[in-house]
Amino acid sequence: MNDREREVLLVEPETVVSEVTAFRLELLGYRVVCVESAEAAFAQISDSIPDLIITDLVLPGLDGMGFIERLTTNEDTSDLRILVLSIDADLSRVQGAYNVGARDFIVVPFHPEVLEEKVSKLLADAPVRDRSVKVVTATAEPAVAHALPTN
Question: Is 47 helix (H, G, I), strand (E, B) or coil?
């Protein structure tokens, strides 16, 4: 791990899975932010881009596949490491997750050492993110527009 604490955004609506996963990651030294939906994750990402996102495929509102696809097709978040955490081990769902941009997949329930191995592997070559950089959304107006005269 790098000199500073790595941040993991955990997108998981099931409280028990979220708590157990976050606890394990925190024991390993990661800073974990937990949210329950894709919409809450986008809000969190607009404040600070994490080093890794762990997401379920079954989410309220926008599902996990749609969430991953939106992240990987956005220039600001296209290089994010994404790990899917799901009870659904159906081959077509697993392949679908990889096709939209997930980098790895873990089936719940999981062994803590498997989680540790996958997270370590995904973060091994991940860039260290500058937490002070804010993500500009497509709906944001350019700041320079307010500085120009309106003759």
Answer: helix
Q: Which two tokens stand for residue 10?
A: 């955990």
pTM (2 decimals)? Answer: 0.84
d(CA 83, CA 58): 14
| Helix H or strand E encompassing 145 | helix 144-147
**Tens of pLDDT, residues 26-57:** 999 999 999 999 999 999 999 999 999 999 99
Taken in order of first residue, the domains within the chain and their CATH numbers are 7-123 (3.40.50.2300)
ω into 127 cis (within 30 of 0): no
* CA 59 – CA 75 distance, rounded (Å): 23
